[in-house]
Write a structure and sequence with these properties.
about 120 residues; mainly beta; 7-stranded mixed sheet; globular
Amino acid sequence: VQLQASGGGLVQAGDSLRLSCVASGRTFSMYNMGWFRQAPGKEREFVASISWSGTVTYYADSVKGRFTISRDNAKNTVYLQMNSLKPEDTAVYYCAAARQGPGDFNYYGMEFWGKGTQVTVSS
């Protein structure tokens, strides 16, 4: 699976952004998908994940209630809708795919990674 993330940018605190990640190659719908982020000087951290069917989602506590992950298997695309952005959301955002359960997503368990997209939130 090849993954390509897009949609990042520079926004102000309180604004919204929607990230997209398009997959190609092997059957997209076979994989659970997730988003991670990495801020300068910090480790890559889990943000959100979604099951292959789209019916089960998980979120990091820091984004719960503000971010929504979704997917469209017909378009081989997973989305991350980010609302009420905060400066601490500033990071490079990566999409990832794995057959690992979405409730168990972690950096070491991902099978495929996309190149990141930069999100910068100014105060």
